[in-house]
Amino acid sequence: MVGSVTFSPNGRLLASSSYDQTACLWDPVTCALYHTLNGHTSIVGSVAFSPHGRLLASGPDDQTIRLWDPATGAL
Q1: How far out from the chain centre does Cα 62 lie?
Q2: Which regions in the chain score pLDDT beneath 50?
Q3: What is the DSSP string of 7-56?
Q4: Which end of the chain is more exposed for a tag (fewer CB within 10 A), N or C?
Q5: CB contact set of 52 (below 8 Å; sequence gap of 6+)
Q6: Rg of the chain over all Cα atoms, to the nearest angstrom
Q7: Local structure of residue 72 (DSSP, 8 states)
Q8: Where are the WD repeats (predicted)?
Q9: Which letter does DSSP use for residue 70 in this model?
Q10: Which residues of 35-63 are buried (b: 16+ CB within 10 A; e: fewer)?
Q11: What is the pLDDT of residue 73?
Q12: Are β-strands 14-18 and 2-7 bridged in parallel, bridged antiparallel, or unpaired?
């Protein structure tokens, strides 16, 4: 189940959060999956891009926040 979705500021990426403890980065034109972001221990309820689009924050129910590089999928 998807928790939330958001577009990057330039519209070239779509991020989704999921109840399977992951977040994902997608190409909104082709629907291709770029990265699956693993590392949470509970449902990921929200994702948000920074204003410049160089960071993606994911917020799960485990009371942590992770910051990701959308270009590489790295923490």
Answers
A1: 16
A2: none
A3: E-TTSS-EEEEETTS-EEEE-TTT--EEEEE---SS-EEEEEE-TTSS-E
A4: N
A5: 9
A6: 11
A7: T
A8: 1-27, 37-75
A9: T
A10: bebeebeebbebbebeeebeebebbbeee
A11: 95
A12: antiparallel
